[in-house]
Model the fold of this input.
Amino acid sequence: MTDEEREMRLAADVREALGNGPPSTPEARARVMEAVRAAGATPRAGASRPGWRSPGVGLLVAASIAGIIALVRARGLSYVPEPVPGINRPSQPVAAGAPTPARSVGAVSDNAAVRVQFVLVAPDAKSVAVVGDFNDWNPSATPLESARGMWSSEEVVTAGRHDYAFVIDGTRWIADPSAPQAPADELGGGYSVLIAGAKP
Amino acid sequence: MSAVVRHFRSAIVLGVALAGAAAAAAAQDARLGAQLDEGTRVLVQAAVDSARAAGLPTEPLVDKALEGARKRADGTRITRAVTALAARLRASRSSLGAGATESDLVAGAAALQAGVSADVLHQLRAARPSGALAVPLVVLSDLVTRGVPTDTAAAVVLLVAREGMGDDAFLTLQREVQRDVMGGAPPASAAAVRTRGVLAGGTVRRPARNAATDATRNATSSAKP
Done:
């Protein structure tokens, strides 16, 4: 099996796992992890996406599968984990080459609470955190948990537009390669945009 | 009797003054004090206060200052970033209208930063007179950031908006263009082709890869096995 085939298989497995239920539940997470384990191999850096070999992005991004899935309910801060037809089930893959922008999960009003899941596959990372305007860009506030190189975390944010980035090993800020990018500004670039509550 | 009245009045004035001072202190964002040096905090707080007085959202400005602090930017750079963002928010509101949401305004400010003209924002508002614009604007900024020429990006986003299509159409467009560009397609071609697909309500064959880009990448790959 070539590296590209291996990566595509991994992506397909992740898609299948995430597409079969609300990924926020322990069962769904277990399916995702099982799918990753079933893939059998750690994606090799830069295996199939030569465009990801840019020096600024590096091997971790080249090997990463990243995405955001908004799993939300517009019910205040309460989150209902059971499947809601047409809402919980991601309709798009969360995989390299098939990026998933931030998406909505039902009608969400302004200031509603939206639960989102951040996912980054970075097998070589020692730590990954997500920073954004929802946590005051604090690298210590939202560490992601790893399962064989797949880092993830669920957070509740307000509906609307949010900037965010991943911080790898405490020092390296990268944009989510699977999400819309924000233009560089006076502080530089390197972050992505989440539209919590946007209807997919 | 008059002395009692004077004391009573003095007490009221003092109370009002204390209440005002407390309100002013409360208006200062404690997060700024915790993350910025005093000189920078004062300048950022002044920008925040000015934005508040103008009816602009202030949270994006505080966020920008905190982002700068976390990135260990110096105070001058942080202040410049905050004041520039305030100016873009002002321009964004001028184009999108007073009814624009905070997300719309921030997305508009980002689009302006990406190089989109204020006139395009105005046209987008005209195309969606009462709808939210955050998603189209985020997609527009993303397309430009990914290398789609500004005019082309604006044209395709306006086209989709004028067709009355929803946010899902914009998100599909963004996703497909991103995939094509990452796969080596020329950004402008990807945007044009994928827009046709979105307008047709389906997907179309992905644009051909850019031979020159492929050659460059092959060379890069060879240099970095």
